[in-house]
Amino acid sequence: KSSEEVPVIVKVVAPDEDKYTPAGKTQTVKPNETPQAVNSIESASSLPEGTQYAFKAPVNTSSEGDKSAVVVVTYPDGTRDEVPV
């Protein structure tokens, strides 16, 4: 049995949650309409392909008015950001 040492390079990269800072934006929907989480993120088109968006809790749209919510942005590497909207 023989062995040989082979030099390798290991590349360490920052997780997606450290590379991106998504911002929230106002989304307008009609009463009882279900908002789409992605539409509440200002920079969604600049985030990596495969990024997923979901509200942390359902948004109650049964009455008119401003509703606060949090969008959970999940990156392809599994890391997450929570964005108040």
TrEMBL record:
InterPro entries: Rib (IPR059115), Rib_alpha_Esp_rpt (IPR012706). It comes from the Bacteria. Residues 16-85 form the Rib domain. This is Rib domain-containing protein. It comes from Streptococcus danieliae. The lineage of its organism: Bacteria, Bacillati, Bacillota, Bacilli, Lactobacillales.
